[in-house]
Design brief:
heterodimer, A: mainly beta, seven-stranded mixed β-sheet, four-stranded antiparallel β-sheet, about 55% strand, B: mainly beta
Chain lengths: ~110, ~120
């Protein structure tokens, strides 16, 4: 199994600012995934982060808006840049361990 | 384009009865399907999965049925318990031979299940 923690658990931010979300896993994993759940919507994959290489972004998401770092096999950060109210969402980190996918508790972001 | 759809936003069931949650998909490339359960302020937790080579998978009170021709899957919970009250997400994936699509899930919108005592 995998235990995932995220910081912060929630935040309220002003438009135009940036927020960095941290994800820590209790085991070493090759790939980490960042998802977003907008209000009333399904979870959507933002990007896949491999250690030692650039993150791979899904259609509709770009590195300038959501830069990702992956300094080691247990840690990753997602930055939401130049925020607007449309970025208000729950952001979740996810990993695959032994063919099972685990999710962190999420970071609830509100942009005012 | 919503490739995975859960058309019922909510479902209310009496304790002890069967809960049936439904999910439809449009992408015929999907070959692996999962159900997740989510409580408030927590991340989704894995419940049960099914590969496209099967039409049924059971795990205790939970059974998932897959109808590939109809592109439809359902989750049956029998008997339902008040602790099952949560949001249930259907998810789908394309697993190629190398398994490199692991982690890339397409989710439905979720169904809120309420089990009344």
């Amino acid at each position: 199994s995998a235990v995932i923690s995220q910081k912060p658990s929630r935040d309220i931010c002003q438009r135009g600012t940036s927020l960095t979300i941290q994800c820590q896993v209790d085991s070493q994993v090759t790939m980490m995934f960042w998802y977003r759940q907008q209000p009333g919507q399904s979870l959507t994959l933002i990007a896949t982060a491999n250690q030692g290489s650039e993150a791979t972004y899904e259609s509709g998401f770009v590195i300038d808006k959501f830069p990702i770092s992956r300094p080691n096999l247990t840690f990753s950060t997602l930055t939401v840049s130049n925020m607007s109210p449309e970025d208000s969402s729950i952001y979740l980190c996810s990993v695959v361990v032994a063919y099972e996918q685990y999710f962190g508790p999420g970071t609830r972001l509100t942009v005012t | 384009d919503q490739q995975v759809k859960q058309n019922s936003p909510s479902l209310s069931v009496q304790e002890g009865r069967i809960s049936i949650l439904n999910c439809d998909y449009t992408n015929s490339m999907f070959d692996y399907f999962l159900w997740y359960k989510k409580y408030p302020a927590e991340g989704p937790t894995f419940l049960i999965s099914i590969s496209s080579i099967k039409d049924k998978n059971e795990d205790g009170r939970f059974t998932v049925f897959l109808n590939k021709s109809a592109k439809h899957l359902s989750l049956h919970i029998v008997p339902s318990q008040p602790g099952d009250s949560a949001v249930y997400f259907c998810a789908a994936s394309v697993l190629n031979a190398g398994g490199t699509s692991y982690g890339k899930l397409t989710f439905g919108q979720g169904t809120i299940l309420t089990v009344h005592p």
